[in-house]
Design a protein that fits this description.
With 65 residues, this protein is mostly beta strands. The protein has one domain (2-64). The chain has no helices and 6 strands. The strands form 2 sheets. A 3-stranded antiparallel β-sheet has the order 1-5-4, with no helix packed on it.
Length: 65
Amino acid sequence: MKGTFSNSGWTTLKIYSGTSASGTLQATISRTSTTYASAGFFGYTSWDLGADYTSGSGNLYLVFS
């Protein structure tokens, strides 16, 4: 997972199949179970979630809390 986010301000990530939180819940991940790394000079961060989370539809909706 990559994005222009910091590694603070969230403790739980929920991954849903689809384009909203009304999709099928694929996983609930604690931030403490992830590996964090800065991914270069573009300001991106990267987390290793420990597994490959994919969706048959190709869409995943992420909810950080």
